[in-house]
Specification:
It is built from ten helices and six strands; from the N terminus they run E-H-E-H-E-H-E-H-E-H-H-H-E-H-H-H. The strands form two sheets. It has a four-stranded parallel β-sheet with strand order 3-4-5-6. Strands 1-2 form a two-stranded parallel ribbon. By secondary structure, the chain is of the alpha/beta class. It starts with a strand and ends with a helix.
């Protein structure tokens, strides 16, 4: 198992926890995937190691009116949520096609199904991830590669704190357990599903665009208190 994130300390702690609990070998690669050469640096660090499953989970969000937010912060969000994911899918995906097998799980969101006032860039990046992943799923499935977009709703991670809405709002009240979301996503990946939405509430919410006008969805999303 290869794990990567910016902070080496938490990664080393996770490595020790996983190795002790499961008797596996974990490799830590501290890397900023949002940097211009982040995806390439990770790919080079992996070297000749065969990758059977790629999970693109790195990402962050942000809250506030787009024109009032720091532009560089939203551009960094695009770099991590979109560019790094696309780069790793291309690099590792080519290796998987050459070896005739592999699985890719891209973490999108129920946010991908609707516009997101006060989280405009984040919702847009997740819409990209969903569309891109569905297309990639279809392109490589005959080559023996399974590609799935996991679209959870609010989940109990550090995401809310980083995005700026971690105190007693809708995000906290609706958050699912991360372990449950992970198990659901991996099961869907094994089954070769293109899209996986955990939870009946999330499934229903993701279908809002089929029954409500876009202007209603915009207003509903904008009214949510985080």
């Amino acid at each position: 198992l290869i794990i990567t994130a910016r902070r080496a300390g938490p990664l080393e702690a996770l490595k020790a926890e996983l190795e002790a609990a499961h008797g596996i070998c974990v490799t830590v690669i501290a890397c900023d995937l949002g940097a211009a050469d982040g995806a390439e640096a990770l790919y080079q660090a992996i070297g000749d190691t065969r990758i059977d499953i790629l999970i693109n989970n790195a990402g962050f969000g942000g809250h506030g009116k787009f024109v009032e937010r720091p532009l560089l912060e939203d551009l960094a969000m695009i770099d991590l949520n979109v560019k790094a994911l696309v780069s790793l899918c291309h690099k590792v995906g080519n290796d998987m096609v050459a070896q005739g097998a592999g699985k890719i799980l891209n973490v999108s969101s129920t946010a991908s199904y609707m516009p997101g006032p006060l989280q405009a860039t984040y919702f847009a990046t997740k819409a990209f991830v969903l569309s891109f992943t569905e297309a990639l799923h279809e392109e490589v499935r005959k080559a023996g590669i399974r590609v799935t977009a996991l679209c959870p709703g609010p989940t109990g991670t550090e995401f809310g704190a980083v995005a700026g809405f971690s105190s007693n709002g809708a995000f906290d009240n609706l958050s699912a357990k991360s372990a449950d979301v992970v198990a659901f996503g991996l099961k869907a990946l094994d089954k070769g599903r293109a899209v996986a939405i955990p939870g009946m509430v999330n499934k229903a919410g993701a279908q809002g665009h089929r029954f409500l006008p876009r202007w209603v969805l915009r207003k509903v999303t904008a009214s949510i208190k985080y």
